[in-house]
Design goal:
The protein is an alpha/beta fold. It has 16 helices and 13 strands. It has a six-stranded parallel beta sheet, sandwiched between helices. It starts with a helix and ends in a 24-residue tail after the last strand.
């Protein structure tokens, strides 16, 4: 109680529960510890928590007081936001604020939730909050490169470091099990999650990055992380590489990859792998069409030589610093796989390591260009690491 009284006399204390990804248990840990503080006599309230539909987390609310949210209407929809004024009026000793990385809607008290929290701290209120490693400002670009998604909402490093940080650690395999059990995202999103953001290699890299950032002996976590992988220099703009085969299906695949690049604010690069003996060169007219279309889509075409397409694509993607490699594959029956062996897509997935790969079912080869936005997407063919 004495500690809490001293905190109220000056600036509040910030405690951040840091996770490598959604679902590791940050909110659960924050609520659990908040309940413990309340039992010890600290006046504790829940100022804001995100309702992700996880029963175990909701059970941690228990007897904690939940302050009403501020309802904000924007473009005809209503949103429940942190009510800073209500917290200041209530003046608890400890406020639990979920999801520190949040952009407020226009017209609110502050533009960002971390600024809301800053006001609570300045008023002498202690704050427990949650954050993912992807939201740490200095780590955002490299996390985007690891996962293949656009940078997340950033929170300044110095704001987080000004308080106490607890890493809510969970092994990648354990988090993937939680995801598979439907404890993190709805059932219809499990397969997509396991094959993309929650790939084992992604989670292992994010865990390593978080540990480096927390290590006071590491002056530049990003440089150390990249150096361990043989990469020097700053993290450049994201690149999405699309593997081409010199077939009619390439047009649809290029348009699909261009759409991903636009969503990720990334550059687009098409790669065609030729055999070392140069005997498999596609028709010049086809390559010219691919180069022209890529130019219209804002991308470039690169030709490389390799002993096999899979190794050539992976090497080209790594050399380009790709945040994602997109390749096409046609659906095959189990018997076809047994009789004809593995596809290029299978070979790429086996050898990709921590390179994010998306395998998309390109359907029939005569698919027209105006159908690119209706992909026959086969999530089962994504890398499941």
């Amino acid at each position: 109680m004495q500690d809490a009284m001293e905190s109220q006399a000056g600036r509040g204390k910030l405690s951040t529960y840091l996770g490598i990804a959604p679902g590791v248990g940050k909110t659960y840990a924050m609520l659990r510890d908040g309940r413990a503080r309340r039992r010890s006599g600290v006046d504790t309230v829940i100022a804001h928590w995100e309702r992700h539909g996880r029963p175990g987390t909701a059970a941690q609310l228990d007897d904690l007081e939940v302050l009403p949210a501020c309802t904000v209407t924007y473009r005809g929809a209503s949103f429940a936001e942190l009510d800073v004024a209500a917290v200041l009026d209530r003046r608890p000793q400890l406020a639990l604020v979920d999801e520190l990385a949040h952009a407020n809607l226009p017209g609110e008290r502050h533009a960002k939730r971390w600024q809301d929290v800053g006001e609570l701290l300045a008023d002498g209120i202690d704050v427990y909050t949650t954050l993912n490693v992807a939201n740490i400002e200095s780590l955002g670009p490299v996390v985007s490169r690891i996962t293949g998604v656009r940078p997340a909402e950033p929170v300044p490093d110095e704001f987080v470091r000004a308080g106490e940080i607890t890493l809510v650690d969970l092994a990648p395999s354990a988090l993937r099990r939680r995801l598979a059990q439907g404890l993190v995202v709805p059932a219809e999103r499990v397969d997509a999650g396991l094959s993309s953001y929650f790939r084992f290699a992604n989670l292992a890299a994010l865990r390593e990055l978080a540990q480096l950032w927390l290590d006071d002996c590491v002056p530049d976590p990003v440089t150390a992380f990249l150096a361990a992988r043989g990469i020097s220099g700053p993290v450049t703009a994201s690149v999405i590489v699309v593997g081409l085969q010199g077939s009619p299906a390439d047009e649809w695949l290029m348009r699909y990859a261009a759409h991903l690049a636009e969503l990720s604010d990334a550059r687009l690069q098409g790669v065609h792998v030729r055999a070392i003996d140069n005997l498999d060169r596609p028709p010049k007219a086809r390559m010219d069409r691919d180069r022209r279309l890529l130019g219209e889509l804002g991308g470039t075409l690169r030709e490389v030589r390799a002993s096999d397409p899979a190794s050539g694509l992976i090497r080209a993607a790594r050399q380009s610093g790709a945040c994602q490699l997109v390749i096409g594959s046609r659906r095959r029956s189990r018997w076809s796989r047994l009789l004809n062996g593995s596809t290029v897509a299978d070979q790429v997935l086996r050898a990709a390591g921590d390179l994010p790969v998306q395998v998309v079912n390109v359907g029939r080869p005569h698919k027209t260009s105006d159908e690119w936005h209706r992909p026959r997407h086969d999530a089962s063919q994504h890398r499941t690491a």
